[in-house]
Structures are given as C-alpha cells and as structure tokens.
Design a protein that fits this description.
Length: about 475
C-alpha cells in the first residue's frame, strides 16, 4: 500500500455525479468521496472495483420508513427491524433512511434509546422523523430539534375514526405544529393527506352495497379525499410561512394541487411511493393491495410518472413497513375480508431501486439522472442531509451503488433479505435493473448478493443547525 493510495476506487462506470454524468470512476478515502473523473485521472487505491460499464449512483435515501411497528410491539420490534430491514436496504441499494418514531408517550425521555437502538443494529445511516400524534408532542419540538429532528408528521385528519393511538388532527393542530416549524428554516411539517369523513362515508355506501373487492377499497377513498386535504395543507403552509411535505401522493388530483401551490411559491413538496408507480388496484392483489391512500388506476399512475419528469413531485419513498403476512391479512388469507384487514403499506425498501430502474429507466419514463434526483438528492436536501448524502460529489459520504441496468430477477421470497415472511405487492414480478455492489461510508457492504458487513455500522444522522449535517 503506497502512501498516496486511497482506500477504494470504483472504475469503468457511468457515474451519475452531481455535476453531470461522466464515464470513469470515483475514489473514496476515509469514508468520503475524494475524486471523480476519468479512470486515468483517479489515484491508486488499495482496492479497485471494476463497474464493467454499469451505472454508479449515490446510494438511495429512503425518506419514508416505519421501523418497529406491529407484530412484536413497540419498541421491541424496533430492535428487530433495525437489523432485518436495513439488511434488506443495503441489498437493495438504499444507504440512508429516515424512520418515523411514534409513540403515545413523550419522545424526549426515551430519545437516547431511539438513537441507540439504531446505532446498535442498523446497517445504514439513519435519521428520525417524529410523529406529532398527541398534543404533548408539540411542546417537544424545540427539544427534538436540539436532538437532530427537523421533520414532524401529522395524520391530517385520517384515522380519527380508527382504533389506533393517535389523537384527531384537525386544522388547529396543523396550525400549532406549523407555527413551531416556521421558527426553524430547515424544519418541515409532513402530512398524511386523506379526508376521514369522505373515506368513512364512501366505505359505508360500499359496504352496504355488498362490495369488498380491492376496487371497492380504492373507491372508498377517492382522489378528492386526498386533494382536499393537500389543499388545506397548502393554505395553512402559506398562512404559517412554513415548509411542508405531503407524503405518499397517490392521485393525479393530488399532484395537481401540489403543482399549483408550488407555482404560487408555497414551500409545499410532494412525495409519491414506489408502490403507486408500479401497482394499481386493478391487479389481483387481494388484501395485499390494501394500502392507504389506496392504489389507483393507470391514469393516476401515468400522471405520477409525468409529475416526476416535470419536477412537480420531487420525492419518491417506500413507506416500508415490515408487517408480517398474517397481520397484513387480518388472519383471513390474501383474499380475506377487505374491510377487516388493516390498511398499510408493505416492505418496499429492497425493491425500491430495482423497480425505479426497471419501470422508470428501462421503460423510458425517467432518465437515470432524474431517478437519482427524486430517490436520493432531493430527499437528502429536503431533510437536512445534503450535501453529505444523496449525491456523488467530492466531500460527500462514499455511499454508492453500482447498478447493472440489464440484470434481471424475479421478486419472490428469495429476492428479499428482510425478515420473513417476504410478501409484497410485486410478488412474482420480473425486474430488470439490479444493484451489484452497495458501498456505504466507503465500505463495500454488499457485493454480488453477499453481505460483507455487520449490523451496527450505521450512525444516527443529527440534522439541522448545530448538527453535523447543517
Ligand atoms: Zn407511512
């Protein structure tokens, strides 16, 4: 090993760097990117990975992950999920994730535990969003900001008729949270936008008519239920002069509202989910397709891809939840009672990148550069992780993924490295476009499907002023 050699070089790649896509490679040293250029310009390295002409992307930043929910109970499940689900993440090319912490009790007395449990178990660097599910959480915002949390989620006004441990969230609470958020330039209010009254009324009509198919679930929360809540968020965001983020936008109408507020200069950003980009309620998914807001149809799906191309929707995430198949099916099997099954999403963090490459790049819906923006760069920027995360640039963390856009596989039980059972809404689907190497902090964590790291290598990302990502 010579004095001047760096730890790692990835060569012969199509590097999707922040300043443009180039043919060449990236040099990494002490966990950071130290050079980007043609192969001939890169320094000697202790180890060289030949990318063989494949893409080199920044590791994906999943802005929407729920670890530790359901099954074993919280926080016991958090201990399990941080290992198993982030193991899936690194196999899938996701090197940073933002997790929602949510509990009825106050957060601050338990905060060190929320950080420690991740640092002991996670394969990837992680941050936490805090769910403002109870009035007393709002008083904790300044303390949470001190602890590196800059994003605060509300269910507006969805789930207030459901038997779960959240207090109803109406415009008064939204205003109170956004008033706090507005005091911190980097803070963001996050919103599940779905109108509970419309949903309840539609569901009542559909149940009375005897419907219980997946399309009935879709009809129970029509696009207007989403659009009207985003509309209110846009108005309240402007009124409070705050920053907002609509999670999991599912419909054309929802995207239209985001577009209008953005044009008016309101700081409201929209996120969609990989599920909405690759699934519709017209598939034979049974209760596995019961997500909230619901899967829609092709018209909405194509509008969401278009919104990503146009920069109207700037973020893609997964809403990953490691719910077991049994919990998901409510004990009645895949084709059990649609109304009784719990709504929710699914374990998506591992097929996030393969699906975006397969359905986005390979079907000419998105350029690889735009995929990197919406799945990495913009997510890092929105949540206070840029320029450390989400880009291939000198000085950024050496979080990289080599992607072979031609490689194919089928998403079945064996595809996943998350915990079992490994069901999903894309079960049995073929994909083209797979990661071959995942590098996190300059360490080759996954190589050709083999894991070469231990859990606990990931670090908590303290966001905001005074933090390392300021
Ligand atoms: Zn979610």
């Amino acid at each position: 090993m010579s004095e001047s050699s760096v730890d790692l070089v990835v060569s012969d790649a199509r590097v999707v760097a922040e300043r443009g896509t180039i043919r060449g490679g990236v040099a990494c040293d002490d966990g950071r990117i130290v050079a980007i250029g043609s192969d001939a310009c890169l320094p000697p390295a202790d180890r060289v990975i030949d990318a063989d002409g494949n893409f080199l992307l920044p590791g994906f930043v999943d802005p929407h992950v729920h670890l530790g929910r359901r099954d074993a109970g919280y926080p016991e499940q958090l201990e399990i999920d941080f290992e198993t689900e982030t193991r899936g993440a690194v196999h899938g090319g996701v090197t940073t994730l933002l997790n929602f912490v949510e509990q009825g009790d106050q957060y601050l007395p338990d905060w060190d535990d929320f950080v420690d449990v991740g640092e002991r178990n996670s394969y990837v660097d992680f941050g936490h969003h805090a769910v403002m599910s109870h009035e007393h959480h709002i008083e904790e915002i300044p303390g949470l900001v001190d602890r590196g949390v800059t994003s605060f989620k509300m269910f507006f006004n969805m789930y207030k008729y459901h038997d779960i441990d959240i207090e109803p969230c109406e415009a008064d609470r939204v205003h109170r949270v956004l008033s706090h958020v507005a005091e911190y330039p980097e803070a963001v209010g996050m919103f599940h936008c779905e109108n509970a009254e419309i949903q309840r009324e539609m569901e009542r009509e559909l149940r009375e008519s005897g419907r219980e198919d997946l399309q009935a679930w879709r009809e129970s929360s029509p696009p207007v239920a989403e659009a009207m809540q985003i509309e209110h968020v846009g108005r309240l965001t402007r009124f409070s002069d705050a920053n907002s983020y609509a999670v999991h936008v599912s419909s054309a109408e929802g995207a239209d509202v985001v577009e209008r507020y953005r044009r008016e200069g309101v700081n409201l950003h929209g996120e969609t989910l990989v599920t909405f980009l690759v699934n519709t309620a017209d598939e034979d998914l049974g209760v596995w397709g019961k997500v909230s807001p619901p899967l829609r149809d092709e018209r909405h799906q194509e509008r969401l891809w278009e919104a990503l191309r146009q920069g109207v929707i700037r973020h893609v995430g997964t809403d990953h939840i490691a719910t077991s198949k049994e919990v998901r099916e409510g004990g009645e099997g895949k084709y059990g009672n649609m109304w009784a099954a719990p709504p929710g999403i699914q374990p998506g963090v591992e097929f996030f990148l393969p699906m975006m490459v397969s359905e986005g790049y390979n079907r000419n819906r998105l350029s690889m550069e735009r995929i990197v923006e919406v799945c990495a760069t913009n997510n890092a920027k929105r949540f206070g992780l840029y320029p450390r995360k989400g880009v291939i640039a000198e000085g950024a963390d050496a979080d990289l993924v080599v992607v072979d856009p031609q490689a194919t596989t089928v998403i079945d039980d064996d595809f996943f490295h998350t915990r079992e059972p490994r069901w999903s809404s894309v079960h049995g689907r073929g994909v083209q476009g797979l990661p071959t190497h995942t590098i996190a902090g300059g360490e080759v964590v996954v190589e050709c499907g083999d894991l070469h790291a231990d859990p606990g290598r990931g670090s908590y990302l303290h966001r905001g002023p005074g933090g390392e990502t300021a």
